[in-house]
Amino acid sequence: MVFIQGYCEANSSISHTWVDEGISPCFYFTLVPTILLTISFFLGTIHCIFYQKYGTAMEPKFIPRSCLYGFQLAISVLLLIQFLGGMVWRAANGGELPGYVVLYGCFSALGWAWAIAVLRVERRRSLLMDRTRGHSIALLLFWAVAFSAENLAFISWYSPHWWWGLENNQQQVQFALWLMRYIGTGLLFFIGLKAPGLPRKPYMLLINEDERDVENSGQSLLGRTEDNQSTWQGFRKKVRMLLPYMWPRGNIFLQLLVLFCLILLGVERVINVFVPIYYKNIVNELTDGSSWNALATTVCIYVLLKLMQGGGAGASGFISNLRSFLWIRVQQFTNRVVQVRLFSHLHSLSLRWHLGRKTGDVLRSIDRGTSSINSLLSYIVFSIIPTIVDIVISIIYFITYFNAWFGLIVFVCMGLYLTLTIIITEWRTKYRRDMNQQDNNAKSRAVDSLLNFETVKYYNAESYEVSRFEDAILKYQVSEWKTQASLAFLNQTQNLIIGSGLLAGSLLCAYFVTEGKFQIGDFVLFGTYIIQLYTPLNWFGTYYRMIQKSFIDMESMFELFEEVEEVKDEVNAGSLLFTQGKVEFENVYFSYTNGKEILRDVSFTALPGQTIALVGPSGSGKSTIIRLLFRFYDVHGGCISIDGQDISKVKQTSLRAHIGVVPQDTVLFNNTIRDNIRYGRISASDQEVEEAALAADIHDKIMTFPEGYDTQVGERGLKLSGGEKQRVAIARTILKAPQIILLDEATSALDTQTERNIQASLAKVCVNRTTVVVAHRLSTIIGADQILVISDGRIAERGRHEELLVKGGLYSDMWMRQQQAQDSDSSSDTETKDRTSEKLQPPSTSSGHHGH
Length: 852
What we know:
Blueprint: E1 3-6, H1 25-54, E2 55-57, H2 67-94, E3 96-98, H3 99-124, E4 125-127, H4 137-151, H5 169-194, H6 203-208, H7 211-216, E5 219-220, E6 223-224, H8 235-246, H9 252-288, H10 292-309, H11 318-348, H12 351-356, H13 359-401, H14 404-451, H15 453-458, H16 462-514, H17 520-538, H18 540-562, E7 583-590, E8 599-606, E9 611-615, H19 622-629, E10 637-642, E11 645-646, H20 652-657, E12 659-662, H21 673-678, H22 686-695, H23 699-703, H24 722-736, E13 740-744, H25 752-765, E14 770-774, E15 786-791, E16 794-799, H26 801-807, H27 810-840, H28 847-851
Parallel strand pairs: 1-3, 9-14, 9-15, 12-13, 13-14
Antiparallel strand pairs: 2-4, 5-6, 7-8, 7-10, 10-11, 15-16
Helix pairs in contact: 1-3, 1-4, 2-3, 2-5, 4-5, 4-14, 9-10, 9-11, 9-13, 9-17, 11-13, 13-14, 13-17, 13-18, 14-16, 14-18, 16-17, 22-24, 24-25, 26-27
């Protein structure tokens, strides 16, 4: 039979909180379950009411399957069982139970049962409003308090009333149950931060959007971003990408610098401990009347340590400044490596990606991403880790040299501080991410508008562009306000926790001084140490936010790194062995998007030295053939070969080294004309550049400029006319001296006379070179060895100019229409000249008029 002998054990009272170097079990096992039951019952009840009233039951297909959620639920059930099992076991072995054991078992079981119910409600029902990612505050707070309560047992390490001695069977079983609770609550808290089994998107979004909408939602040109996902998602993957930049491989000097900086970091931690101790010794020696020599020595050591430490926690001390100075070279190495690798990766991406990118977004992502890597490394290595080490050292120091209560105060404050910081910061992450997106939108809109300033002025749209930019700024400021407001809320919460801990510890220390248990120097030590500890702790939230900001800022950059190269060289690809210049298309199929083929079964052969002309209506696939031959894209079917070698099996650099392209739309670098032409062959001399300009019929025009070849062409070459830009591009290709030439309507922007000059120059350049020409004016390709008429992605007709005219097909129709248009233009020009001459002619005077 089981007897309840009283609420507390013999010779014990609930009012005795500290007994024999430890917390009283009666007090502890009354306080903990009461707090847990209060949290789970009141917060859980409010939580369930809201979910029942304002939520809706989720369809099973939208509830993600998660083994981790099942593990989470199993741990909760196991903990509930162990509370009841522990009470039954103690009753079966002891016969008599103190009342607090019964209360502990029942209250704890009720609290965990209610927590399990809340967990199941969260999984099965969803609020209609947008939810932040993760569990509710009720569950996270419950798990955090439960885990913190189990950690409080360490304070009673030396108490004989607890189980640490493992002297008998009862203590061993109690220790096993505590170990089960400790591991279980810890796992629940940390798994709870990941929130397995809960949707990653608002439920209304899942049920209202079809698969295509969901695929496109939140997706930008930089990649897909979910507003509510945690920045810690994919943490391992992000760290793995950062590792090459953390350790300067191949540079022994920088590696030694890193190790030396870490040593200085350890020295700072030691100094932080001794500064308040020597300050305490000074106060005690002043009050005790110690000798001048001893006092002077203590003061000198203290000042030296303070000089090393700086204003507080190594904020600006000698060691901190030395470490920052030495870290500059490491930081520069990281910054350089990241930017160079990313820049190289962007140039390796396909034409498809570059055609769809937003330049403003990409540049902002690169700037923020590279700077965030340096910030992340600095905050983690020199702020977060040292702060955590300082906290652990302080707890151990206060428990060892002061009193367990001081360690308890520090521990509770740290636990609450870190828990609430993590929860609130995770909550406000979406505001920071949205602010970044709005910032990108505003900058992209400004860049796009400025790049197209001519179009803006053509249509008097200045006020419209300004209003669009202002609208983007207003949207950015709305997101910025939410970010700043949530930051102010977080700061106030942190200040409240820090102030409460400082007040409790100071009152307790002052009480012990008045009781004669502590010296005045001990109070000074506590105040100095705790303020020294809270200084970096007060910045801990900032560090955590900055780390999250760095992760958010890096997301776009990581997405740029993750962009897949559409056109890749094979692993063992060799160089193109150019012999004659025979180009073959064999049954080529290609499409930019699935389901819409641009080229269908295209086959033709360009013999060495021949000129192949591609004609046809716009959108028929002429320029696509040029791009496939230059390998901007890989074919989806068939094969393209040069001299019998499949171009997809050779290195892109070797293929493109033998091909010269004159595009339809020429874009020049914001540099001199000389450097723009020299881009065709970087090693070319000034004389070779001028010879290429002569061949392109632009040398005389360049010499009329005040600065000649040193004339700046402006951004994208806007200071030059369309014909001048085209001739610079032709000169660039002539300088490259390729064996295969691709002309994509190369003379479309030129007047008739210049076009004839350029055609003559191109005819000389293309001699003995395989040439593929995309032409709109059929008169420019009369002499082509073979003309291919492209229609709807197929070769509708092929042959020489005369042969195609005789056939009377598509080419003949196109030729007749162009001839009629030219005749019409010529006649209209003649009529216009006649009318003008008539208007300018003076009125005639007849002889009859005079006679009259």
